[in-house]
Amino acid sequence: EKGGYPDFMLKEIHEQPRVVRDTLVGRMVGGELDIDELGLTYEELNLIDRVYVIACGTSYHAGLIAKNLIEMWARIPCEVEAASEFRYRNPIITPSTLVVAVSQSGETADTLAAIRDARIKGAKVFGITNVVGSPVARESDGVIYTKANKEIAVASTKSFIGQVVSLTLLSLLLAQVKGKLTTGQVRMLFRELGDTAEQIQWIFDTQAEAVHEAALACKDAHSALFVGRGMGAAIAHEGALKLKEISYLHAEAYAAGEMKHGPIALIDPGFPVIAVTTKSPTYDKTVSNLKECEARGAKIIVVATEGDEDIKQIADHVIYIPPVRDAFCPITATVPLQLLAREVAIMRDCDVDQPRNLAKSVTVE
Ligand code: M6R
């Protein structure tokens, strides 16, 4: 049932191009974006003036990406919050608040409790889940299914990609309803979104050796830092979580601009710094942060855009992804970090599918 792969994690990572395609099937109807299971009319959507994305773990990281997209495209203020925090404070909720609950399993206790609380306070709740008929699906006003199919490895990979694609669709819809993007712009972006399926495949076909070399450079470390800016920072958080949960190597993620406010003190010769330096509006800024790490002897590993030769001047290891619009970069740039975490875990003799102390569904608080 592992389909010829040595573990479920690798099988599921390789399913990601299919997940992108399946999540988009039926979403462009007669040239219009269609999310008919929303449970909210366009009039109701148009009234939304605040969005909270609530989730845990990897699903929370998908929320960090959604915040960037919703604020960039739809210009609606969006906060991302761990469900375990959201449920115990008194968030500002009005009838024009949209709460988006993201949960692969659809049964995470904190996320469910947060949904219930938000609905009592009058918010509209929209669920994004991988499990049909799950509590999150049942208790939300509307739901998008991520089409990842059953995920067995405890570390989420393909469901994360399904969540990010689904949240991208929701962001596009909000932008269209709010009149911030035209239907023509939405169609163009939708097409580009679909291209990420082939771009992920390209990573599998061409970057395996680069990932392996980078993993060798990390495997004996005691700690690693993941950095990036904007979308890159969100990707860095997911990369760090993957590495720590399956390889038991301590990893932390920082927005690259925060390095000099503390974490740079950790850097000594050989310390791995893993950076997302894809071509984006903040590329130069991230590179200059990396130079400061390089000057202190860090081992620099980057995920960069194919064709960027200059980055080799500071990076010890480069893993390339195809050129992609910054908005869609998380869908491809996360993939090398999933592969890196898995290789490091295997080199450290860890069980990548069943990491210690973790469960696939966290149904207790
Ligand atoms: O099923 P959920 O998406 O609600 O689960 C949330 C987290 O427990 C989950 O993402 C966890 O962090 C994974 N082990 C990450 O790989």
TrEMBL record:
Catalytic activity annotation: D-fructose 6-phosphate + L-glutamine = D-glucosamine 6-phosphate + L-glutamate
Keyword Repeat attributed: yes
Subunit organization: Homodimer.
Annotated keywords: Aminotransferase, Cytoplasm, Glutamine amidotransferase, Repeat, Transferase
Protein name: Glutamine--fructose-6-phosphate aminotransferase [isomerizing]
Keyword Repeat included in the entry's annotation: yes
Gene Ontology, cellular component aspect: cytosol
Subcellular location: Cytoplasm
Active site: K360
Every SIS domain range: 41-180, 214-355
This protein's encoding gene: glmS
Function: Catalyzes the first step in hexosamine metabolism, converting fructose-6P into glucosamine-6P using glutamine as a nitrogen source.
Top-level taxon in the UniProt lineage: Bacteria
EC number: 2.6.1.16
Signal peptide as annotated in the record: none
Parts forming coiled coils: none
GO MF, one annotated term: carbohydrate derivative binding
One BP annotation, GO: carbohydrate metabolic process
